């Protein structure tokens, strides 16, 4: 502060000294009015250095004029008139200092304000454009606008706001109102923006546009809408599969019961057998619907990957369409893996659909199975432990991916498909299912060279084959008491008929409330056979209620549709034996004998 004052007041002294020397060099006889030079010194001091130094310059100028020019032979002035004139000059000098000092302060305040607002404009994280209303010419752009559009400052100042609009039109907004539009960046890509404009008081009518890049938000909103739409379609498919499974339970069970009543030589056996086969094929369709809707209860078991590939062939060919060739090459020998059959079918379906979408002009998708033994080095490359693995490969001839895309393809909601064409969840779900099974998924791809997805799953031992169909006479029988709870009358009647033929004592209930009332007065109930999805009180909740008073009672839940995620998790996490629909007398018998042969449990795991 002291140094600043010394500089300012020292400057005032120098200005006055310069004026004095100038007038002395001109000679007394030439300096008829020295006050003009001194007034100039005062003005310069006040304008450049401020009011205080200016008044100091006035005092110095008065002394200099009185000593050297007005009365050089006397002390200060010769007459009263000279003194009055010098005093008047001093008053005028002080007034000039105050005036120019005020102007100087205003100029400094304005400069600081301009710098501050320029800094706020340039450093704002939100893109801002100042443009002329008449010509739409961009007058100023901040750094955020440069980053947003990819142009330099100079390039932006050579454009109009119409040049930035995707369709070349300009959507004006009312004062402070927000409008949505799409703008084009320098590289040709487009972004979704929301624009708010405000009038700016310049010499020519101008507006300040505040631009917000909402491309990512719009993408997430579209993905959310797509996911919600797929969830709604999945719920519909799950509901249809549930009702269809109930019908198939009736058809298949009565077909089996009818076969049991027919003689070996009866001509009707072949016809009824065809009915049974048709119901089994229809059951496969409903299971694929549940795979699509992701509402199938997971039941991992040992399966042959070859059989899964061949069994999914028809569905996959319908998915890829006519302009895509699907080549499936199962391994020469069985490829046993321990997975949920529906889960691996869903993984296969997602990979094939992605391969189809990558080939807009058609091509060939190759799906192969095999086995692979990984040593330590190869295991590290795939990200799994060394050992023997089953291999499932899906290769396409599509556009391929760059390295940046490959790093993100398994992220939830990440997709390279156009808006409305994908949710970004398929590969993320496939990755989760494969990891849950103890395997790994690897992708090899290059731009223009297609993509190859390789799934590795640990090989397991013996395969879990479905038991052969038997008639009721050869099935395991029982004499226990079964409380059958099913809200569908036809399904309940079918199950009761099959169980009674197997020797069980059956008590029927149409819902959970009836089952609770029956248990209040029924002394002996060995097993609860209940549907999962029922109104008011579902099967797992009913089992939990009854477990408090009948901890020794066994529980079997039957359904082809688990309903809510919470119910599905309770079925998958243990504690409840599950019998899938559509059921047959054989599946009911095996499920009951399995649970009745287990040690008694004192609670149902909810």
The CA-CA distance between the termini, in Å, is 78 Å
With strands numbered from the N-terminus, the spatial order across the biggest sheet is: 2-1-5-4-3
Note the overall shape: elongated
Major sheet: size, sense and barrel closure?
5 strands, antiparallel
**What's the number of helices?**
20
Annotation, overall tally of beta strands: 17
What structural category characterises the helix and strand content? alpha/beta
Mean pLDDT: 78
- The percentage helix is 40-55%
Runs in which pLDDT lies below 50 for 5 or more consecutive residues are: 73-77, 602-606
Descriptors:
606 residues; 49% helix; alpha/beta; five-stranded mixed β-sheet; single chain
Give structural notes:
Strand 13, helix 16 and strand 14 form a beta-alpha-beta unit. The C terminus is likely disordered. Helix 9 packs across helix 12 and helix 12 runs antiparallel to helix 15. With 606 residues, the protein is an alpha/beta fold. The protein is elongated. The strands form four sheets. A five-stranded antiparallel β-sheet has the order 2-1-5-4-3, with helices on both faces. The protein starts with a helix and ends in a 10-residue tail after the last helix.
Task: Itemize the secondary structure elements and their pairings.
Layout: H1 2-26, H2 35-49, H3 51-70, H4 80-123, E1 128-132, E2 138-141, H5 143-149, H6 153-157, H7 161-164, E3 178-184, E4 190-200, E5 206-213, H8 215-261, H9 268-293, E6 301-304, H10 305-311, H11 313-320, E7 324-329, E8 336-339, H12 341-357, E9 363-374, H13 376-382, E10 387-395, H14 403-406, H15 426-436, E11 440-445, E12 451-458, E13 481-485, H16 489-501, E14 505-509, H17 512-521, E15 527-531, H18 539-547, E16 554-559, H19 565-572, E17 577-580, H20 585-596
Parallel strand pairs: 7-9, 13-14, 13-15, 15-16, 16-17
Antiparallel strand pairs: 1-2, 1-5, 3-4, 4-5, 6-8, 9-10, 10-12, 11-12
